[in-house]
Amino acid sequence: MSKRYVLISPCRNEAEYMRQTLDTVIAQTVRPTRWVIVDDGSTDDTPRVLAQYQAKYDWITIVTRKDRGRRAVGPGVIEAFYEGYESIDPDDYDYLCKLDLDLNLPPRYFEILMQRMEANKLIATCSGKAYVRQGSELVAENHGDETSLGMTKFYRVDRFKAIGGFVREVMWDGIDCHRCRMMGWVACSWDEPELRFVHLRPMGSSQTGILTGRMRHGFGQYFMGTGFLYMLASAVNRIGEKPALIGSSMMLWGWIKAALQRKPRYDDEAFRRFVRHYQWRSLLVGKKRATQEIYREKGVGSGLQS
What we know:
This protein is an alpha/beta fold. The chain contains eleven helices and eleven strands. It folds into two domains: 5-199, Spore Coat Polysaccharide Biosynthesis Protein SpsA, Chain A (Alpha-Beta Complex); 210-260. A hairpin with a 2-residue loop joins strand 7 and strand 8 (137-140). Helix 8 packs antiparallel against helix 9 and helix 10 (269-285) crosses helix 11.
């Protein structure tokens, strides 16, 4: 099994969480060949913590960016990711991963992902599943099996380059998976004990609050090309997620507001048509069957996510 993989971690003011991520990566059964951590202008204890780990592990590299004055999300995170990406030669590695620094990973996480990808050459990107702590319990976040999760995007390097990498806009972590499917490749995630990780910051949160994060998600869906009926169905489906009702309402308002303002959309009409067709089939027959239909259309069989 090939074991050459590189992690790239954009971060800002992660002192509260990052030691857990650092320690669980160091404890991996197969460690990364290199780990590039991009400090996006942290103003807390993050630089000191990173310096401690860099001094101890020669495969950890720190790239420091100027303070932008705020925590960046969406395109800002991807800008920081690409500063790390540009510091390496991706062809030196078989796999790369955009990894957030607010995660607690199981010890065989990367070993198992590489085993799955070596066993199925059609998998372009994959991940485990995210859980969050609610009191004494771990509760699953709401992510479909047909996507790799944005906080831990594990990619074959050649497939990452072939889809054009990440779009520097909100919904970058959905666009990439659709692009993989357009090219006949698999994007997937698995909910299994050895691939479940703890997400230490709530999904969809924002530097200005979780409701802003929900609105941002709605705008991102609009930008990607999502149709109104699918957006409405998605909002209704998540109506019970905290904050109940208002959270899903803000998602829908984010889409509507962008439409009313005639915000620009992802500049690839063929891609947007592909997304709308996939979403319409998902509404009619469910995501699992809609995804398998795409694979059959591409001539690569069905049931590839197992």
